[in-house]
Amino acid sequence: MPTDDLSEAAGAVDGSLAPVGKVLLDRERLHRTLVRMAHEIAEHDPDVGAMALVGIQRRGVEIAQRLASHLEEFYGARPATGAIDITFYRDDLDNRGPAFDQPVVHSTSLPFDVQDRRIVLVDDVLFTGRTIRAAVEALFDYGRPAAVQLAVLVDRGHRELPIRPDFVGKNVPTSRTERVNVSLEEIDGRDEVTLEHPPDTR
Amino acid sequence: MHLISIDDLSVADIETLFRLSDGFLEVASRPIKKVPTLRGRTQINMFFEASTRTLTSFELAGKRLSADVVNIKASGSSVGKGESLKDTILTLESYRPDVMVIRHDRVGACRMATRYTNACVVNAGDGSGEHPTQCLLDLYSLRREFGVLEGLKVAIVGDVLRSRVARSNVFGFRKMGIDVRLVGPPTLMPPGIGEWGVPTYETLEALVDVDVVYLLRMQLERAKGRVEPVPSLREYSRVWGLAPAKLRSGQRVMHPGPINRGVELTGDLADDDRSLILQQVESGLAMRMAILYHVLAPHGEGDAAT
Fold first, then answer.
1. Whole-model pTM?
2. Which domain holds residue B151?
3. From the candidates B10, B120, B294, B306, which should be mutated to test the interface with A, based on the most A CB atoms within 10 A?
4. Among positive and negative, which fits the CA dihedral B60, B61, B62, B64?
5. How many domains does one find in chain A?
6. Is A181 on the interface with B (CB under 8 A)?
7. What is the C-alpha separation between B213 and B157, in angstroms, rounded?
8. Which of B77, B85, B163, B248 has the fewest CB atoms within 10 Å, i.e. is most exposed?
């Protein structure tokens, strides 16, 4: 049986000044987690060809692709995939002070018919739930799905809206000031999920 | 944050606007062409000069961002009763708009307006001064067509003297690394043109190695009693008017609109595949949405926090 092998990351991987954090999922465990999630998604409804996985920019898109590949591998059909950028749907554009970073907008692409389809939204970290609310609103501008479910790699708690995930990779209790960092090979050069403590409070 | 001159923006700002425009172009391709981003914000478009493209573009841009948009045109407004620009601005300021888009026939009107309002002011054209949003949409059109702006050769042809588009485009194109030259009758080149730092030519032979020919409209409404700068429109079109035969196959034609078929260009060139004129209009809507979004948000880059 695999043990809970949380280990301290001994500083930066690439020599730069990265903050110290705990490794929650290493490459191996991340892979197994996604495999398990893919099976859970199919368990809910095995007709994988009829559904769609929609990743939320930016890392949710990669995770959706990986889940689609696993589903194709295990169940013989690849679900449609798409990407949603929620920048124009955010609810916090009013709370802007000088320190606010204007979000970079990536692309939205839903190359399939949303109408009457089962859609699973995919994101890396579920926190307050506001991103998911925005994604559902954006999705509904494209049509009326039969059902919308949510798959997240990490649920870190602290929900501010009545939103709950259907498929979870790992539940990680966190304090408000901590950060969950998801690194993916395609974007960050490695597969890893770490929990980072803010520098002042130890 | 105001947008009065193209110089108010850095190269990084302009790159940000390109990225935003790509996002808004996608919005325009959906069945529901609307996003809730500026919900509840108030946008007042004040146009003291005629316009089809710019006014419609800004109105639709604001509406597709879910803002409340009001259009005020000079004719039919109290400006006809003699109300000054200052009083007009102060009156409308009482409604606490978030953004005022202003087109006026006097240079400097928009700059002046910033003194009397807390709203973001966007210059939609001030006399023969500047037209920064046109420059931005032109840059975006070029970016969509050619991918890279640096090193592109563009010739601006025609009535440079009275053109605010020419002014903004010379500043803005060069800022992005585009090689700009001006072509036209010497009577239509502004005095002091030497200080602009761009080469000027008198004939269309100067177009031979350019990627894009940017045509300006003959601005008859700005002549107003002065000596005619060219003997006739026919002569203008014969010497400086563009036709498909005068262009190489790889070259493109742009025009800020409205076009005068038969003057700056022949009708069949306007309808040619090499014309980017309608693409400019499409790009203009996306870019104006990007501009409205950008002026109502502070600066800086970063990934969205969830």
1. 0.83
2. 132-276
3. B306
4. positive
5. 1
6. no
7. 7
8. B248
